[in-house]
């Protein structure tokens, strides 16, 4: 059985949904009332998009309500794990945010926790009973849209391990390695490098897990064009796009999923997770 805390996010089809009402009190506290008319001996899978601490709060009180209804087995699907990028302390005074979220979720003692395309190996290392769903089928869908005659572009060293696994899944699509420099104090990016002398007009697909402001991809696109790239495509599992799509007009097409939010902008092709998992 499924309990979709975000009614616009229904990643698992053809399963019976548990009905509920949720709202926020005037003091800011989330609240839920779950309809008790369901089989409490069955496994319940909660799905949610955690884009704020209030979303996390709604998840916490939902699990508490189910426990008080004597539900024994609870799974969780949260495609975008919050604070996954804050997986190391770069300078004194910063928190290890990903561990804060993981500790809260671990305290719920869930049977399984599913995450889509985790940012790094830190998240599943901190998260109990976790299963990471890879981005393989997502990139396969992207290639079915743009064609297979492309090179996969790894934006930095952190993405290398995952992109080579994607390449293997796709039958050996060629990978081009790239790098960048970031000032840990200011976050400013510089020094984009593409480790191939001449791309000879080949179309290029940058593959990464998250696009926030898009600075990494704009800087990399410029360097790819300097190396004679053909059409440029961008595929990110988790699209935040806080600066909009205008800053990414260097790409012929942008692809993402609905792991963070829904987009109606024609600048992006959104492949819904119910088609991928």
UniProtKB/TrEMBL annotation:
The region annotated as signal peptide is none
State whether keyword Transferase applies. Answer: yes
One GO MF term = ribose phosphate diphosphokinase activity
Its EC top class is transferase
* Classification via CDD domains: PRTases_typeI (cd06223)
**Record keyword Hydrolase present:** no
Ranges of residues in domain Phosphoribosyltransferase: 139-257
The record's keywords, sorted A to Z, are: Nucleotide biosynthesis, Transferase
Give start and end of each Ribose-phosphate pyrophosphokinase N-terminal domain.
Answer: 19-107
Q: What Enzyme Commission number(s) does the record list for this chain?
A: 2.7.6.1
UniProt family annotation:
Belongs to the ribose-phosphate pyrophosphokinase family.
Q: Supply the name of the protein.
A: Ribose-phosphate diphosphokinase
The organism's taxonomy opens as: Bacteria, Pseudomonadati, Bacteroidota, Flavobacteriia, Flavobacteriales
């Amino acid at each position: 059985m499924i309990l979709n805390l975000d009614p616009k996010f229904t990643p698992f089809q053809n399963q019976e949904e548990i009905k509920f009402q949720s709202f926020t009190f005037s003091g800011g506290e989330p609240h839920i009332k779950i309809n008790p008319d369901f089989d409490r001996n069955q496994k319940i899978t909660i799905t949610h998009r955690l884009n704020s601490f209030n979303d996390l709060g709604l998840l916490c009180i939902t699990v508490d309500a189910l426990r008080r209804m004597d539900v024994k087995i609870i799974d969780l699907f949260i495609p975008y794990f919050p604070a996954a990028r804050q997986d190391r302390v770069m300078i004194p005074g910063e928190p290890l945010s990903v561990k804060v979220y993981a500790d809260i979720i671990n305290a719920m003692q869930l049977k399984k926790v599913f995450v889509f395309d985790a940012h790094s190996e830190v998240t599943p290392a901190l998260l109990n009973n976790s299963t990471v769903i890879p981005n393989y089928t997502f990139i396969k869908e992207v290639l079915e849209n743009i064609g297979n005659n492309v090179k996969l572009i790894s934006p930095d060293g952190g993405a290398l391990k995952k992109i080579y696994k994607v390449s293997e899944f796709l039958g050996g699509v060629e990978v081009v390695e790239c790098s960048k420099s970031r000032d840990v104090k200011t976050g400013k990016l510089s020094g984009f490098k593409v480790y191939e002398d001449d791309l000879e007009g080949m179309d290029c697909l940058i593959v990464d897990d998250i696009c926030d402001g898009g600075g990494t991809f704009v800087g990399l696109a410029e360097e790819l064009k300097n190396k004679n790239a053909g059409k440029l495509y961008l595929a990110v599992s988790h699209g935040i796009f806080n600066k909009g799509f205008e800053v990414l007009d260097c790409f012929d097409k942008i692809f993402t999923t609905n792991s963070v939010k829904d987009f109606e902008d024609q600048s992006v092709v959104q492949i819904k997770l119910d088609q991928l998992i």
